[in-house]
Amino acid sequence: MKIIQITPGTGNFYCGVCIRDHSLVTELRKRGHDALMVPMYLPLVADDPSQKTDTPIFFGGINVYLQQKFPFFKRTPRWLDRILDFPGLLRFSSRFANMTRAKDLGEMTVSMLRGEEGHQVKELDKLVDWLRELGDIGAISLSNALLIGLVRRIKQQLRVPVVCALQGEDDFLDDLPQPERDIAWNTLSERAQQVDAFVAPSHYYAEQMARRMNLSLEKVHVIHNGISVSGADVSSHEQTSPVLGYLARLCETKGLGVLIEAFILLKQSGRHPSLRLRVAGTLAPGDSRFVKKVQARLTSEGLAKDVQFLFNLSMESKLDFLKSLTVFSVPALCSESFGLYVIESLAAGVPVVEPHHSAFPELLKETEGGLLCETNSPASLAEKVDFLLSHPDQARSLGQTGQKYVRERFNTGLMAERFLKLLQEIAADEV
Questions:
Q1: Is 265 exposed, middle or buried (0-12, 13-18, 19+ CB in 10 A)?
Q2: Which of 218, 213, 219 is nearest to 198 (CA)?
Q3: For 154-177, b where at least 16 C-beta lie within 10 A, e where not — what string?
Q4: Are 110 and 74 in contact (CB under 8 A)?
Q5: 373, 354 contact by CB (below 8 A)
Q6: How many angstroms separate the CA atoms of 130 and 150, rounded?
Q7: 2-226+412-430: CATH homologous superfamily?
Q8: Is 394 helix (H, G, I), strand (E, B) or coil?
Q9: Calpha distance 337→205 (Å, rounded)
Q10: For the sheet containing 327-328, what is the strand order?
């Protein structure tokens, strides 16, 4: 079956959504399917050479912005569009993504959700024309519901089933300014009726988005995100001193500030004098100011020497990073549809401490690999981390159990198998 996976690129850093989509496409190919990853907005970032293709970038970020702001660019020739879609130029422009005003972002989001009725209809036509040239497509998979504006034109022109993943749209839409926020949610709900099926990574998020998009829960299928679980072994951990770790975007909404305060409390308690903190992840445009703020906080407490910051790790470096940890935590403040970093940590045999909200209780119930703490509470987080550091046998047991269940329940093979089963069900319904 020819399966097209349409995924927004980031230009210069890894993201959980991209990793999930890359893993799905890779596994589909292993199973003999003609799966192709198609980037939108910016180039995709991937360590896997098999994912680096000559597939063009559609809805290039520069063209999308110019067509939103200036009517002239809705009529420019395609040769000029191709110049503006040059990958190197798009990577460079991605460094300044934080310069877009919130109002501009809201208007552009609404326009993209409106698809053929939006300012970027020329880009939509280019994508549909290119897809038509590929021949017999079995299904098209959208990376998230913010791409739902593509669906109506695709189904009208290509007569192909469209499946849409749900991955963190709620926080993004809720952060838009009014009135665009309400318009975006209403447009999303209206356009959602045209999608054949939605895929949510957790029951929590399936219920959340079904309610907010006015969908029947039967139309939202839960397929847990999967990761490659080879190469990680808890028995390989060798640490001379305990290490608390964080691996996610380096921003306030992921709870990095909460973790820093919990680390300060742990050091001030005197119970773990040799404890170190290792912070790694994506440093996106606009995050530098916040990172400097938390670094200054550590310096003021005389703890800067005990904390290491690592930016934009490669996949290979990420595995080595995880294996260096004793306990892991990303105490996110935002709504998390899944939390891929939890599964990655447990795959390496490292127990986790996560806040009691969003998908975290569901993940820890499935994996039995960690503890829950109060949301946005450095004291509660410090208490749970202290327990694991003070009871190494129990911490090790949690890590081993979590690793076992991640390998059984959250692997890429199982994710692909369930995804293919869903496509077969959709095909059977259309006969």
A1: middle
A2: 219
A3: bbeebebbbbbbbbbbbeebeebe
A4: no
A5: yes
A6: 13
A7: Glycogen Phosphorylase B; (3.40.50.2000)
A8: helix
A9: 5
A10: 307-311, 276-281, 243-247, 327-328, 352-355, 370-373
- What's the one-letter identity of residue 257? G
Q: What is the pTM of this model?
A: 0.91
Query: Containing H/E element for 141?
Result: strand 139-142
CA atoms within a 13 Å half-sphere pointing along the CA-CB vector of 205 = 28
pLDDT in tens, the chain (431 residues): 999 999 998 766 667 788 899 999 999 999 999 999 999 988 887 655 555 567 899 998 898 989 999 988 888 888 888 888 888 888 777 766 554 455 668 999 999 999 999 999 999 999 999 999 999 999 999 999 999 999 999 999 999 999 999 998 999 999 999 999 999 999 999 999 999 999 999 999 999 999 999 999 999 999 999 998 765 554 445 567 999 999 999 999 999 999 999 999 999 999 999 999 999 998 877 889 999 999 999 999 999 999 999 998 877 888 899 999 999 999 999 999 999 999 999 999 999 999 999 999 999 999 999 999 999 999 999 999 999 999 999 999 999 999 999 999 999 999 999 999 999 999 887 65
Write down the CATH superfamily of domain 234-409: Glycogen Phosphorylase B; (3.40.50.2000)
Region(s) of the chain under CATH 3.40.50.2000: 2-226+412-430, 234-409
Angle, helices 61-69 vs 121-133, to 10°: value is 140
The pair of structure tokens assigned to 298 is 């550590």
Query: For residues 407 and 288, is the Cβ–Cβ distance under 8 A?
Result: no
